[in-house]
Amino acid sequence: MRITVMGAAGVQAQGVIRDLCSSPEVMEVILADLEKLKDVLAFRAKEWGEGKAKVQFTDATNPESLRAAVRGSKVTANCIGHDFNLRVMDACIAEGSHYLDMGGLFHVARKQMLRDAEWKAKGLTGILGMGSAPGIVSVMAGYCAARLDTIEYIYLRDGIANYAKSDFPITIPYAAQTLLQEFTDPAYVFENGDWKEVQPFTLGEVIDFPQPVGTMTVYPTIHSEVATVPVAFKSKGIKHMNFKLGLPADFEQKMRFLSGIGFGSTKPLKVKDAEIAPRDYFVALAETFPKPAGKPADYKCLRVDAKGVKNGEEVEIRTEMMCSPYEPWNMKTGPFTVGGPVGITARMLGAGIITERGCVGPEIGVPPEKFFEYCAKRGLHTKVTITRPIA
To answer: Is there a contact between 375 and 339 (Cβ–Cβ < 8 Å)?
Structure first.
């Protein structure tokens, strides 16, 4: 099968490329990104491509350029920022390629869901939000929901710890724009059958994650899962659903400071003869930050708790996955657990294992048991606990 990786020079695309190029069922991988990133693309094609990778310069603002990158591919893995999700989807449906992305931060995901009928009519699948969160936790939510007749709640939690040392004041773990939006934009929770807007860093909850993540406070942040999961399980009467994220305390405080003084703003400021939004400036500045050297030391715990009724009996289900750096690729937990699942899901789409058509979240589109099998081959193991409370 042939698969296009859109935004192949990005940080999170590392895991996608390594997964696809090291999988025997994948014959060709198109590494698509801007020409100015040709050195990064060339390195990844040579060092990671295993003879399968080909570089294609692509401008995501140009519809014809996007179509050319997608043309002939069974699946397109979109690793560009969520602002380009709809554009890449346009190219995919025009060229007959299945599609998946790394999430739409709630608002874009809702727009993507509106295209469900169009994609179904074309016999194509768009998986909206794959990675760790959204992604792995979304599939976990689907696993839990399948074991309940009715659902009271599904709660998604993501705890991240990083013990790597750096002399630089701050290390950006994933897209700077996404981080600033998560720290600045209102989040959404699903309560009593409807969505509710909440401010960042409210509704804090202390979670005792297993070591080495440990105990931390998690908060709602704007995320795709809150857009897709309540819709997916509406027929089961889901009442409550939310996503909460926990980050290393020192990093969280620095990001709170930056967003608090205005770096999350999208309103342009005039500086001498130029106008630039603080958020755009910070995103550009973050590209110049040095990357931590040495052995990766970041860890993540993904947890989903669900409660409902099965055969007239109240049931609680917990699924949990501990994530560590992936030694075979010398890769940090971040890009491994975001990019790796994207590669896995792209392969499942290309192989016909995913049969759901239309634009859906992973909680509907990805068969949980098979997905967990693929993850386990990469060292990502899922723990399931089911309890039946005694009234």
So the answer is: no
Residue pLDDT, tens place only, 113-157: 999 999 999 999 999 999 999 999 999 999 999 999 999 999 999
Which H or E run includes 302? Answer: strand 298-310
Alpha helices by DSSP H, listed for the chain, are 13-21, 38-48, 63-70, 85-95, 107-113, 116-122, 137-146, 176-184, 225-232, 249-260, 278-286, 333-350, 362-365, 368-377
Q: Is 124 helix (H, G, I), strand (E, B) or coil?
A: coil
Percentages of the chain per state (helix, strand, coil), in multiples of 5: 40, 30, 35
Model pLDDT, residue 390: 52
The pLDDT value given to residue 388: 84
Candidates 155, 142, 133, 131; CA nearest to 77 is 131
For the chain, give the number of residues: 391
Mean pLDDT for 338-367 is 98
Confidence band for 319, pLDDT divided at 50, 70 and 90: very high
Could you tell me which residues come within 8 angstroms of residue 199 by beta carbon, excluding any fewer than 6 positions away? 186, 187
Other Cβ atoms within 10 Å of 235 Cβ, number: 9
* HEC profile of 310-332: ECCEEEEEEEEEEECCEHHHCEC
> How far is it, in rounded angstroms, from Cα 365 to Cα 361?
6
Q: Which residues have CB under 8 Å from 388's CB, separation 6+?
A: 313, 314, 315, 316
Question: Model-level pTM?
Answer: 0.94
Contacts of 173 (CB under 8 A, 6+ apart): 160, 162, 179, 251, 298, 334
Whether 350 contacts 5, CB under 8 Å? no
The stretch 341-349 carries a mean pLDDT of 98
Tell me: the pLDDT tens digits for 148-166?
Answer: 999 999 999 999 999 988 8
> Which residue, among 76, 85, 93, has the nearest Cα to 4 in the 3D structure?
76
Assess contact for 278 and 269: CB atoms under 8 A: yes
Q: Within 13 Å and on the Cβ side, how many CA atoms surround 380?
A: 32
